[in-house]
Amino acid sequence: MTAPTAPSTDTYLGTNVRLLPQTDQLRALHTAIRDRDASHEDFVRYSRRIIRLLIEAGMDLLPFEPHEVRTPTGAAYQGLRFASGLCGVTVVRAGESMEGELRDVCPGIRIGKILIQRDETTKEARLYYTSLPADIARRHVLLLDPVMATGGTALAALRVLTDLGVPEENIVFVNFITVPEGITAFCEQYPRVRIVTSAIEERLTEDAWMLPGIGDFGDRYFGTDD
């Protein structure tokens, strides 16, 4: 039986989707965490290094404003600073693995929560809980969730944000690993939301697992896998 062919992502790369530079260092980090025999400590350590790269890339897509400072020599430096009104939103629970790196990069940032779980029988994403800043419609949002397979969870989270008035163009989805099927579904429905990811896998299996894959990211990161 021939494996299904994954859709092409060429249309979206460089526009809707920013893929981290596929350097030898990044490939080595992915090799360490994809190893099924990796220890919990190694998985967390190397995942956090990749997450930091993703957060930095995602922040680069947010707005900046001019800001002048005085240097130690007394000269003026015409620089930049982040515009006000930034917000992180994590998709519980795997997305919480990315909070620490976001707080390191942007101390004091407000972080909202969305709890969405996929029904194991129907594969449909169901919304269970939200806790978001009251003024989120006026903010620029970094949506944090490490895995996007079919795209169902990410799309459900985006519906929550856009239904509350957040413009698509004000959302950056920071994602650890995805597949062409997820990218296509995401970009077709939300073409103005930008995605930052570190890896695009070959395809999904019939059971919606990624190939070559990484396993259950949340379980491996929080140490609840078998």
From TrEMBL:
A Pfam family recorded for this sequence: UPRTase
Protein name in UniProt: Uracil phosphoribosyltransferase
Domain Phosphoribosyltransferase: residue ranges: 21-224
GO molecular function: uracil phosphoribosyltransferase activity
InterPro entries: PRTase-like, PRTase_dom
Keywords linked to the UniProt accession: Glycosyltransferase, Transferase
NCBIfam families (UniProt xref): PRK00129.1
Organism in which the protein naturally occurs: Streptomyces eurythermus
The enzyme's E.C. designation: 2.4.2.9
